[in-house]
Design a protein that fits this description.
heterodimer, A: 191 residues, B: 223 residues, mainly alpha, two-stranded antiparallel sheet, 10 helices
């Protein structure tokens, strides 16, 4: 039980996907200008990440390893993720139009989001069991939402701040992100 | 456009990292040392040049293009993923140390937006030769940009510059001379964001200044 809590905490704070592993920087900078957008993107990523990690885990263990064609990993994973995103989009559209309205526009962007493929591969290289994969992925996704939300709140305020002209937009956002990263790195000492 | 323009536009004018701000994830993560940055650049060079060439060959054949057009994004992704797998295997076999330190970021070249971006924006509508030159130029521009960030971070953070393997330029003497220690934060994740933010801001400032100068000159010429 202890190790599961430690794993969850590591995934959430110490190995935060954005601030210490540098995955999913594009949505982090691109969609974090408004709180509602940040949350929508965050939940869409969590959703797709969880499903794709479970599917890729099963495929890797029962197909790729069983047939001894592990080198096909990258190709298989990206195809699985791209088609999953497409399937999830169609499924949500049919089942819950309200949810589709909230997440719909973010879903196509997720195919090329390196966080999803990154976590799928990390779960394999860290040799997680199926249970660990689910816990790790869930907390990585929650960590993504958490940082996106904090960052979008800060950015809403930066918009009104007198930033030097050359630093407006992405440069100042990166500098703020670095301060956030310092805070998160210090929390890592708890584990 | 001439061959020369196709090759060199990726260096400064359309630099993928500093001007278009694409491919951020790998450049932040692997810029801890110059060696890692150059290794990443090598991988991207191979994948981008060949993917541009192959995609351009597919799309310049009329019959094939008509067939591929409705499903072109999945086709691009499969081409890119195949090339990335080749890079992964070659690095694992010949430069295992680099393979280890780049880790998950080698397979992640697949979702590097520069590669899919060039495929869609340039390779699909240009001749194979132009596309290959464009790929080479963009990859070299990307490598150069990562190298700048890596030198900045490694020098300030550790006082050394690891060019390749055992070839390390040790500059800690300079820090001793001034009487300070290297600033460790620059090699940590937080330093990646900070360095990139500072460098990007500086480049924008220089760009703005040049644009203002040009405008003033034009105004003067027009009387």
């Amino acid at each position: 039980m202890d190790s599961i809590i430690a794993l969850a905490f590591t995934a959430f704070i110490a190995e935060n996907i954005i601030l210490s592993q540098f995955l999913g920087i594009c949505p982090f900078l691109g969609v974090s200008t408004k709180r509602s957008n940040a949350l929508g993107m965050g939940f869409a990523v969590l959703f797709v990440m969880l499903i794709s990690s479970m599917v890729t885990y099963a495929l890797y263990t029962y197909v790729l390893e069983a047939l001894d064609i592990v080198y096909m990993r990258t190709i298989v994973f990206i195809i699985v993720i791209a088609s999953l995103v497409q399937m999830v989009e169609t499924f949500i559209k049919k089942v819950s139009p309200a949810l589709y309205k909230a997440l719909g526009i973010y879903l196509p962007l997720i195919t090329t989001n390196c966080a999803v493929l990154g976590v799928a591969i990390l779960n394999i290289t860290k040799e997680h069991s199926f249970g660990e994969t689910v816990v790790y992925t869930t907390f990585i996704g929650l960590g993504f939402i958490f940082v996106m939300y904090i960052f979008s709140m800060i950015r809403e305020r930066i918009d009104k701040a007198p930033v030097p002209k050359a630093f407006q937009g992405i440069p100042i956002a990166l500098i703020v992100a670095s301060i956030l990263a310092i805070i998160f790195a210090r929390f890592g000492g708890i584990v | 456009m001439t061959n020369r323009e196709n090759l060199f536009k990726g260096f400064v004018k359309e630099n993928p990292l500093f001007v278009s701000v694409l491919g951020m994830c790998p450049s932040l993560a692997v810029s801890t040392s110059l060696e890692n940055g150059l290794g990443m650049g090598l991988g991207v060079f191979f994948v981008l040049t060949l993917s541009n060439l192959i995609i351009s060959l597919i799309m310049s054949n009329e019959k094939l293009a008509a067939l591929v057009k409705p499903v072109r994004i999945p086709v691009y992704i499969v081409v890119i993923a195949t090339l990335v797998t080749i890079v992964e295997m070659l690095m694992h076999a010949f430069i295992p140390d680099l393979y280890k330190s780049l880790g998950v970021f080698i397979p992640l070249i697949v979702v590097n937006c520069i590669i899919l971006g060039r495929a869609e924006a340039f390779a699909s509508s240009n001749t194979p030769k132009d596309a290959a030159l464009d790929g080479m130029g963009m990859a070299l521009g990307f490598t150069g940009a990562i190298a700048i960030i890596a030198i900045f971070r490694e020098f300030l953070g550790a006082g050394t510059i690891t060019v390749w393997g055992n070839l390390v330029i040790n500059l800690t003497g300079l820090f001793d001379f001034i009487g300070i220690t290297p600033i460790g934060i620059f090699v940590q994740p937080a330093g990646a964001f900070l360095s990139f933010g500072l460098i990007l801001g500086t480049i924008t400032a220089i760009g703005n200044k040049n644009a203002a100068k040009k405008l003033a000159k034009e105004a003067l010429a027009n009387g």
